[in-house]
Automatic annotation (TrEMBL):
Enzyme active site: H292, H339, D394
Tagged with keyword DNA-binding: no
UniProt keyword Repeat, yes or no: no
UniProtKB keywords: Transferase
Protein's name in the database: Citrate synthase
Cellular component per GO, a single term: mitochondrial matrix
Family as reported in the entry's similarity comment: Belongs to the citrate synthase family.
GO molecular function, one term: acyltransferase activity, acyl groups converted into alkyl on transfer
Organism domain of life: Eukaryota
SUPFAM superfamilies: Citrate synthase
PANTHER family (alphabetical): CITRATE SYNTHASE, CITRATE SYNTHASE, MITOCHONDRIAL
Amino acid sequence: MFARLARTNYLKNSGRYFSTEPTLKERLIQIIPAKQEQVKQLKTEHGDKIIGTCTVAQAYGGMRSVKSLVTETSSLDPEEGIRFRGLTIPECQERLPKAPGGAEPLPEGILWLLLTGEVPSESQVKTLSKDLAKRAGLPKHVTSMIKAFPKEMHPMSQLAAAILALQSGSKFVEAYNSGVKKDKYWESTLEDSLDVIAKLPEVAALIYQNTYKNGDITHKIDENLDWSANFTRMMGYSSKEFDELMRLYLTIHTDHEGGNVSAHTTHLVGSALSDSYLSLSAGMCGLAGPLHGLANQEVLSWTMNLQEKLGNKQVSNEVLSDAIWEGLNAGRVVPGFGHAVLRKTDPRYTCQREFALKHLPNDPLFKLVSQIYDVVPDILTKHGKTKNPFPNVDAHSGCLLQYYGLKEHNFYTVLFGVSRAIGVLSSLVWDRVLGHPIERPKSVTTEWISSFVNSDQSKK
Ligand SMILES: CC(=O)SCCNC(=O)CCNC(=O)[C@H](O)C(C)(C)COP(=O)(O)OP(=O)(O)OC[C@H]1O[C@@H](n2cnc3c(N)ncnc32)[C@H](O)[C@@H]1OP(=O)(O)O
Ligand SMILES: O=C([O-])CC(=O)C(=O)O
């Protein structure tokens, strides 16, 4: 409603449009008081209501399904998949602004959506692109540090370290040290978060150039290009189709509610009033684990090994299944399949598959990925361990990147991290808006559990 009214407020003047629409920060200032009031009221009037419980199995089992976190930006349904502020991925693809001539959403649009809960207008997204372009640019100590990293250092370790090095520019630290009041913390957290999101493409591109190309970035940030296209140019890519893939990729990897490792870590570290840089760097260390974001690197290596083993030719489902069983029987997981929450095919997998069907239907690797999708759910069901035999987001991304020439598997999680920063930092801003306290759940020992289960209290 608001966006529609605001769109009517363009003034045509000397052939140029001037928007009277609020900027991102102005809109947040308008939205925040009502949300703060709503949360205050919920805590006062319903603070003692129980929303979740925790069993012994859950305490030992990674707290699966325990409802004990509040995250505003997105919510995950086991059957349907992710909704970003209520919107499914197809709805985001349809409703978020696109680049001229493009079909995929601009990541700036989802940044706005996650922060405000509203679909931005094209002009709001354009203004945000320009704002991010202005905030880009790395301090010298960060570029020299990245260039000094050994090539064998994993790109995710380089990313986490570079984000920490950027912390010297934290506006939150400056505000905190000057005694700014708690109700204003969100403003400098927003500044830091936008600064780091603006700088991440250059950090990632420099890691890429330095690690794999022995080179430097030649592209200068162009305020008239979107955030994602500036990123691909800095990495040395100029294909329009790859630009579209990356806009989609950087949109869909942003957020997956609050309990996943990277989001929860960012939130936890942030709850100690660590700034956006410290919190995001910690989150990236979690994303770098093979059961989480690093799975996309694992998937591609696994798929290409399989391809080689099968003699680089199309084989029957039976032959493919035998090769997959071999790995499973040796005790290895099938990377890219299974999920801690999802119980159906991840819609992030589906939209990447649709992109491939549109742009690269005959690519041999895509054909193998499709065939794997045909056989693995049955195999994992027969295997009988995993609660979800279907593919997750990581099962598809590598084959698309590979097709467009981005062949360095070790780098893939960095792309995920650049996108994930948008979601977890939007959440951190809301943590500050709502004044969430330091996170400190109670832990118990196995001795405590043993005596508890035999006590009268456990029978209640
Ligand atoms: C962006 C993301 O983070 S998406 C997830 C990316 N990770 C992967 O794709 C790695 C492969 N998948 C997995 O390891 C798991 O499915 C996870 C980590 C994603 C979820 O873990 P959980 O919630 O513990 O899964 P679940 O409850 O189904 O696990 C039960 C058993 O099935 C096994 N299992 C789960 N997925 C798989 C799989 N893809 N292949 C083989 N075995 C599996 C588990 O290892 C576990 O075995 P165990 O009892 O011997 O320890
Ligand atoms: O939700 C999870 O646990 C893992 C995941 O898919 C993500 O973080 O994108």
